[in-house]
């Protein structure tokens, strides 16, 4: 018996090793390839865009002068150089350049970088017959492109830019000496080395940024958790004050009772906020629990437990259940989703000119076929189209005073992890409608 246990302990079947290896590869692919969360946060930065725009605008005319007048190359095109310079100028004059960038501006920046880097350098490489100057320029371009943007975009962009430039050269390119086999093979080795190094550096930089974000979020969670110690002391003080109140009759006892009640309410609110911050800090590592959750029960419990600032806020929230449904997910995470959306709606109502009344925040639960919906409708200040595009971006917040911009990004990731979707409809001064759609279980 002991020999069997030892063999079972120290020998690993090949199938188990294969399954373990497969799981590790899947985990790496999911973490490093399929979760492009960090790059939209950190790329492209406003300073980097303007620096690239400035150097592109000045660099192309300067290099035209070098390769045309000082060290002539077989083919130079002043018109094309000026066009690249104008694209660089566009990076300086595009209005806004928000940080983090909107989806539209990010697409414009990516297109400009694609034209001025992989396409242009590949075109000039073919036009000049793959000579040493443009071989070195292509290598430098690959390293710059991978350092400039996300490695996924750089990989697709460099391959597509090379292909499009080659096809255009075959169709409308100037007469250029053909690239021989030996020259082409040598150039391929050099460019392959530059490409592989750019890919490795891009991967390592991406992983480093992800680790830094994980550390930052983890620190937020730790700091929030440490606040529980002084809050526990405040809770004890509140209980002591309330116990002391009956011994002081009249107005003094009533004031002590009110003070103890206010301290209890404050501690409850702070603990709720701490729970929210700790949960939001798990943005990059959400729990994988798959519980069967009742949507109606979830919403009612979250609404009842929410720490309202006053009775008017509580009266403003109305819950309507037309048809309950069940779905699979993490109960704790989805309770936080309801909390975040409720908090945002109440904040929007507080920013409106009129005081909130009953029904100003309507939470509806319903189902149709195989899909269930949880809809949050508020009569708050609303938002414009540009804001709607950005509210789910991590670290973007409309509340610059206290908001960290993780709440709605967290909500989106939790809902998507349950194979659902979350969307928003809103116009300025006419409230907002957040709709969560989930597959019924």
TrEMBL record:
InterPro entries: BphY/WalK/GraS-like (IPR050351), HATPase_C_sf (IPR036890), HATPase_dom (IPR003594), His_kinase_dom (IPR005467), HisK_dim/P_dom (IPR003661), HisK_dim/P_sf (IPR036097), Sig_transdc_His_kin-like_C (IPR004358). GO terms for molecular function: phosphorelay response regulator activity; phosphorelay sensor kinase activity; protein kinase activator activity. Keywords: Kinase, Membrane, Phosphoprotein, Transferase, Transmembrane, Transmembrane helix. It catalyses: ATP + protein L-histidine = ADP + protein N-phospho-L-histidine. The keyword Protein biosynthesis does not apply. CDD domains: HisKA (cd00082). SMART domains: HATPase_c, HisKA. The keyword Kinase applies. It holds the Pfam family HisKA. It comes from the Bacteria. The chain crosses the membrane at residues 49-66, 78-94, 106-126, 132-148, 153-172, 184-203. Its EC number is 2.7.13.3. Coiled coil: none annotated. GO terms for biological process: osmosensory signaling via phosphorelay pathway. Residues 222-441 form the Histidine kinase domain. This is histidine kinase. It comes from Ramlibacter montanisoli.
């Amino acid at each position: 018996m002991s020999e069997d246990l030892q063999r079972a302990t120290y020998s690993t079947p090949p199938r188990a090793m294969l399954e373990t290896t497969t799981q590790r590869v899947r985990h790496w692919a999911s973490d490093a390839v399929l979760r492009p969360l960090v790059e939209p946060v950190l790329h492209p930065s406003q300073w980097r865009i303007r620096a690239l725009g400035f150097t592109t605008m000045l660099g192309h005319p300067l290099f035209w002068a070098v390769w045309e007048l000082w060290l002539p190359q077989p083919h130079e095109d002043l018109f094309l150089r000026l066009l690249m310079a104008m694209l660089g100028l566009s990076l300086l004059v595009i209005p806004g350049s928000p940080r983090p960038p909107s989806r539209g501006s990010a697409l414009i920046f990516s297109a400009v970088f694609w034209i001025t880097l992989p396409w242009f350098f590949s075109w000039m490489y073919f036009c000049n017959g793959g000579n040493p100057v443009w071989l070195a320029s292509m290598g430098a371009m690959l390293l710059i492109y991978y350092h400039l943007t996300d490695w996924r975009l750089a990989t697709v962009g460099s391959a597509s830019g090379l292909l499009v430039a080659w096809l255009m050269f075959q169709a409308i390119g100037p007469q250029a000496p053909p690239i021989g086999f030996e020259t082409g093979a040598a150039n391929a080795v050099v460019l392959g080395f530059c490409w592989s190094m750019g890919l490795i550096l891009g991967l390592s930089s991406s992983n480093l940024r992800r680790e830094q974000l994980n550390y930052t979020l983890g620190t937020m969670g730790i700091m929030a958790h440490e606040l529980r110690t002084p809050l526990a002391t405040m809770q004890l003080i509140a209980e002591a004050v309330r116990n002391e109140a009956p011994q002081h009759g009249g107005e003094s006892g009533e004031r002590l009772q009110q003070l103890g009640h206010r301290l209890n309410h404050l501690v409850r609110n702070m603990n709720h906020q701490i729970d929210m911050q700790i949960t939001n800090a798990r943005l990059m590592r959400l729990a994988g629990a798959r519980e069967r959750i009742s949507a109606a029960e979830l919403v009612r419990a979250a609404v009842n437990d929410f720490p309202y600032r006053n009775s008017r806020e509580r009266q403003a929230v109305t819950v309507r259940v037309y048809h309950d449904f069940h779905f699979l997910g993490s109960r704790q995470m989805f309770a936080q989703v309801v909390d975040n959306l409720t908090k945002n709606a109440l904040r929007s109502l507080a920013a409106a000119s009129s005081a909130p009344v009953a029904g100003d925040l309507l939470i509806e639960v319903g189902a149709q076929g195989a899909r269930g919906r949880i809809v949050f409708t508020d009569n708050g200040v609303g938002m414009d189209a540009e804001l709607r595009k950005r509210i789910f971006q991590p670290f973007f917040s409309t509340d610059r005073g206290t908001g960290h911009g993780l709440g709605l990004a967290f909500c989106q990731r939790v809902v998507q992890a349950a194979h659902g979707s979350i969307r928003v409809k809103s116009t300025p001064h006419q409230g907002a409608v957040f709709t969560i759609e989930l597959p019924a279980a």
